[in-house]
Design brief:
By secondary structure, the protein is α/β, with parallel strands linked by helices. The protein folds into 3 domains: 6-142, Formyl transferase, N-terminal domain (Rossmann fold), CATH 3.40.50.170; 148-246, Methionyl-tRNA Fmet Formyltransferase, Chain A, domain 2 (Roll), CATH 3.10.25.10; 287-468 and 480-537, 2-enoyl-CoA Hydratase, Chain A, domain 1 (Alpha-Beta Complex). It has 19 helices and 23 strands. The chain has a 6-stranded mixed β-sheet, sandwiched between helices. Strands 1-2-4-5 form a 4-stranded mixed β-sheet.
Length: 554
C-alpha cells in the first residue's frame, strides 16, 4: 500500500502509479480529476460526498442549502464524466445543524470510511458487479458549482435561519463573500445570538475574537473573516474576525472610542458572557463550563482547532476556574469536531513579528498543558470528538485519561512544520507509548487512527458513536467514572506518581529543554519552519507527494 497526494499534480500521481503498480486505487477526496491514463489502466474508486445519482462539485453545499435531513456518500468507479461511474458502495447519514467542514469531518467521513471498506471488500471478492447509474433505481441529478451569488446574504431581508444556513454551507470553504466597512471579505462560521439586536447588517459587538452582526429578525456571531487575495491585505487567509476588522478604517461617526489594538476594533463593544451560561441562553462562546453533580465539563471549540495566545490564556483561566469547583472528575473538550491542533499558525503568519508571536503562543500553550499535568486533586479526562494534532495531542495526553471518538485522527508530531515540539511531549508521549514508539511517531510524522492510537496506548477509550451523539455519550461515561468506588484511590495514586516523576525529573526541566530548541528555530530567519508555516497557511503544497514512502515531510 502507498499514498500519493493529488495536490502535487497529475505527474506525481502518474509517477507513483508507475512505480507501485497498484491493483486498486482509492481517491477519498479529489479536488481535480484523476489523469485519464491512470483510470483507464487501473480500477480507480472515487468517493463522492452525495447519494447515488448525485453529481457535481458542490454536493454538500447543496444539501445544506436545501435543508436536506439526510444525505449520503457514494463510492464510484472513475470515468470521463464527473461522478458518472458505476457504483461500488454507498451510505447515508442525518445532516446535523453544523458547518459544512464539521459535517464533512464527522458524518461524511464516517459514512465514507464504511462505504470504502465495503467497496474494497467487494473488489477483493472478485464476483461483485458495480451498479451502473443508468439503472432505473438510480435518479441522476446534476448540481452545478455553488457560486458566491447564491451564497450572498441579503441582510435586509434574510431571516436569521437563512443567514445561518448560508454561513454554515460555506464553512470552512469558501466562506461567504460580503462587505464590511467598505472592504470585501469572506465570512466564516455562523452561530445564533439571542439578545443583541440592531438594524439589519449592523455590526453590534465583538466577543473573544468573533463579530456579532444584526439580521432582519435577530443576530449572528461570525468567528472568522478572510480578506480577498486581491485586496492588498498581506494576510489574505482566515483569522479571528475582530482582528481583521481592527485593521479596517472605522465607519463614519464611530467617535474616538477606546485606543485601538490589533485584536479588536475600538469602535465596537466587547460583550462577554459567563463561563456558566444559563440553559435558556442561545448565544456563542468558544469556552463553556458546566457541572453535573461532582463532574465538571470544560467545553471548548476553536475554528480549525487552532489556539492563539488569546485562546490559550482564556482556556487556562477557565481551567483554573474549573479547579475551584468541587468535582472529582473534570472533562476537557467533549464537543464535536476538532479537539485542538496546537498553536495558531494563521495568527502567527499575520503578525508583524511572526517569530515573537510563535514564542508567545507556544509559552501560553505550555502554561495550559502544565496546569493540566499538575492537577492532582481530581481525575482529568480529555474527550476528543474530532481530530487533534501537534500540541493539541499533547494537551490531551496531559490528562489522566484520553477518550477518542472512533472517527478521529491524531497527528502526534511536529516534524511537518520543521519543529522539534513542545507542550511537555518529551514527558507525556514516552510515558504513554514508550520511548521507542514515541520516537517513531514523531519522526515518521504520519496520521494515527483512533483504533491504532488505542492499540499503542495513546488513547485509553474509544467512543464508537456518531459526532452528534459524542457529547451525550461522554457525559454518560463520565458519570460511570465518577461513580466508581475506586476513584478516590486512583486520584491518590496519580498524585503519588506525579510526585515521584517530579523527583526523578522536574517538569520545569522538560519545559526548559523543549523551549530552548523551539526558540532557536523561531528566531532563526533561515529555519524551514517559517517557509513551511507560510506555505501551510497560504495553502501552497510542500513536502513529499508520497508521505509513506519518504517517512514524512519537514
Amino acid at each position: 500500500m502507498d499514498v500519493v497526494l493529488a495536490s502535487h499534480g497529475p505527474d506525481a500521481v502518474r509517477a507513483a502509479v508507475r512505480e507501485v503498480r497498484p491493483e486498486l486505487i482509492v481517491a477519498p477526496m479529489l479536488k481535480s480529476a484523476l489523469p485519464e491514463d491512470v483510470w483507464q489502466e487501473h480500477t480507480c474508486l472515487v468517493v463522492h460526498p452525495g447519494p447515488p445519482g448525485d453529481r457535481g462539485p458542490s454536493s454538500l453545499d447543496w444539501a445544506i442549502a436545501e435543508e436536506a435531513s439526510e444525505w449520503g456518500v457514494t463510492v464510484l468507479q472513475a470515468e470521463a464524466a464527473m461522478d458518472a461511474g458505476d457504483i461500488w458502495a454507498d451510505g447515508s447519514f442525518p445532516v446535523p445543524p453544523a458547518g459544512k467542514g464539521d459535517v464533512y469531518r464527522g458524518e461524511v467521513s464516517d459514512a465514507a470510511v464504511a462505504a470504502v471498506l465495503l467497496a474494497v471488500r467487494r473488489y477483493a471478492d472478485g464476483s461483485f458487479k458495480p451498479r451502473p447509474q443508468s439503472d432505473p433505481g438510480t435518479r441522476v441529478v446534476w448540481r452545478d458549482f455553488f457560486r458566491q451569488e447564491q451564497r450572498r446574504i441579503d441582510w435586509e431581508n434574510d431571516s436569521t435561519a437563512t443567514v445561518l444556513r448560508k454561513l454554515r454551507g460555506a464553512d470552512s470553504q469558501p466562506g461567504v463573500l460580503d462587505e464590511l466597512c467598505g472592504r470585501e471579505v469572506f465570512l466564516h462560521g455562523g452561530h445564533p445570538e439571542d439578545r443583541l439586536r440592531g438594524q439589519p447588517g449592523e455590526l453590534l459587538a465583538t466577543r473573544s475574537g468573533a463579530l456579532c452582526r444584526a439580521t432582519r429578525d435577530g443576530a449572528v456571531w461570525i468567528p472568522e473573516l478572510r480578506p480577498r487575495k486581491n485586496s492588498g491585505d498581506p494576510a489574505p487567509f482566515r483569522r479571528p474576525a475582530a482582528s481583521v476588522l481592527a485593521s479596517f478604517p472605522a465607519p463614519p461617526g464611530s467617535g474616538p472610542g477606546m485606543p485601538g489594538s490589533n485584536d479588536r476594533p475600538y469602535w465596537l463593544p466587547e460583550i462577554a458572557v459567563p463561563l456558566e451560561l444559563p440553559p435558556n441562553r442561545t448565544t456563542w462562546s468558544d469556552i463553556r463550563y458546566r457541572q453535573r453533580d461532582d463532574i465538571g465539563f470544560l467545553f471548548f471549540s476553536f475554528p480549525s482547532g487552532a489556539m492563539s495566545t488569546n485562546h490559550c490564556r482564556r482556556l487556562l483561566a477557565a481551567y483554573r476556574y474549573a479547579l475551584t469547583r468541587s468535582t472529582s472528575v473534570l472533562v476537557l473538550g467533549g464537543a464535536r469536531d476538532f479537539f485542538s491542533n496546537g498553536i495558531h499558525l494563521n495568527v502567527i503568519e499575520a503578525s508583524s513579528d511572526p517569530a515573537g508571536e510563535s514564542w508567545t503562543n507556544l509559552v501560553a500553550m505550555n502554561d495550559l498543558v502544565e496546569a493540566v499535568l499538575r492537577t492532582t486533586d481530581r481525575l482529568v479526562v480529555a474527550a476528543l470528538g474530532g481530530n487533534a494534532a501537534a500540541g493539541g495531542v499533547m494537551l490531551a495526553l496531559a490528562a489522566d485519561e484520553v477518550w477518542c471518538r472512533t472517527g478521529s485522527v491524531l497527528n502526534p508530531h511536529y516534524r511537518n512544520m520543521g519543529l522539534y515540539g513542545s507542550e511537555y511531549w518529551t514527558y507525556s508521549l514516552p510515558r504513554r507509548v514508550g520511548a521507542e514508539t514515541a520516537e517513531r511517531l514523531t519522526s515518521e510524522a504520519l496520521p494515527v487512527s483512533a483504533a491504532t492510537a488505542e492499540r499503542i496506548g495513546l488513547v485509553d477509550r474509544l467512543v464508537p458513536v456518531p459526532s452528534q451523539e459524542f457529547t451525550g455519550e461522554v457525559e454518560r461515561l463520565a458519570a460511570e467514572v465518577a461513580g466508581d468506588p475506586d476513584l478516590a484511590r486512583r486520584i491518590t495514586a496519580k498524585a503519588t506518581a506525579r510526585h515521584a516523576d517530579e523527583l526523578q525529573r522536574p517538569l520545569a526541566e522538560y519545559r526548559r529543554s523543549e523551549l530552548a530548541r523551539m526558540r532557536a528555530v523561531f528566531f532563526d530567519p533561515q529555519a524551514p519552519y517559517h517557509e513551511l508555516r507560510s506555505a501551510f497557511v497560504r495553502k501552497n503544497p510542500t513536502g513529499s507527494a508520497r508521505p509513506l514512502a519518504h517517512g514524512g515531510a519537514g
